[in-house]
Structure formats: C-alpha cells, structure tokens
Amino acid sequence: MYSDENREILDLQLADELGKPVHFIVHRADGEQYAEKIKTGWDAIVADAGLSTDVVRHILRHTAATWLMQMGTDPWQAAGWLGMTLEQIQNNYGRHHHPDFQEEAAEAFSGRR
C-alpha cells in the first residue's frame, strides 16, 4: 500500500513523463480518467488492477473500513470518509480490528492500570 506521499511522487513522475499534469486520483496509465462516472469505469479499473470480476465496490468498502480500523484511525473520521454511521463502523469493524478495542480491559487484568 502506498502512502499519500508516495502516490503523489508517482503521479508527479507520471506527469513529468507525459508532459502534462495528472488531475485524477484514479487514473489510467496515461493520466486520464477512466470514465466520467465511476460506475462506467469500474470494469476497466478492475481489469487494470488485475482483480477478478467478482470484486465489487462493496467489497472494497469493507476492506477500506477494516484497514482504517487496523491503522487506528479515529472511528468518527473513518465513518465520515466511508459514508457510514459511527455505529456501523464501531459495531462492524471497530470491535474486531481497532487496536484500542478492549485495551483498557486488558490493562486491568495485566496490572498495568
């Protein structure tokens, strides 16, 4: 997974190679957008990424939610970014994947409290 800084560097390198700026977050190798709407560009994005055709946008949303929780992202921020309620993020992902989940209870038993 690339950091924001690495993605920016890659896009700047591509822009330098192409001789024009890259204006799209998700873009083809030539820096142009796949399609005006993500729905119409989805098949091309999946193919370029080498993903199987059974990968749907909803699966990627679950993956993003899991990764955000594993990285310790504030649940309120993650919920807003994913378009979920705070309750959805906490119930479905935070309790299983966030590193802070049950930390206080574990500390009580370990004597660190």
Any idea how many domains?
A: 2
Q: What's the overall geometry? A: elongated
Q: What is the CA–CA distance across the termini?
A: 36 Å
Please, how many helices? 6
How much helical structure, as a percent, in the residues?
55-70%
Percentage beta strand: under 5%
**Number of DSSP-assigned strands:** 0
Q: Spell out the helices and strands N to C.
A: HHHHHH
Query: Measured on Cα atoms, how large is the radius of gyration?
Result: 19 Å
- Taking pLDDT < 50 over at least 5 consecutive residues as the criterion, the unreliable ranges are none
Mean pLDDT: 81
Structural class call reads: mainly alpha
Q: Major sheet, described briefly?
A: none
Can you describe this structure?
With 113 residues, this protein is an all-alpha fold. It has two domains: 1-51, no CATH class; 56-113, no CATH class. The protein is built from six helices and no strands. It has helices spanning 4-18, 38-49, 57-70, 75-82, 86-97, 103-110. α3 (57-70) packs antiparallel against α4, α3 (57-70) crosses α5 and α4 packs across α5 (86-97). The chain is elongated, with a radius of gyration of 19 Å. The model has no long low-confidence stretch (mean pLDDT 81).
Briefly summarize what is shown.
This protein has 113 residues and is mainly alpha-helical. The protein contains 6 helices and no strands. It has 2 domains: 1-51, no CATH class; 56-113, no CATH class.
Descriptors:
113 residues; 61% helix; 6 helices; mainly alpha
Helix-strand blueprint:
Elements: H1 4-18, H2 38-49, H3 57-70, H4 75-82, H5 86-97, H6 103-110
Helix pairs in contact: 3-4, 3-5, 4-5
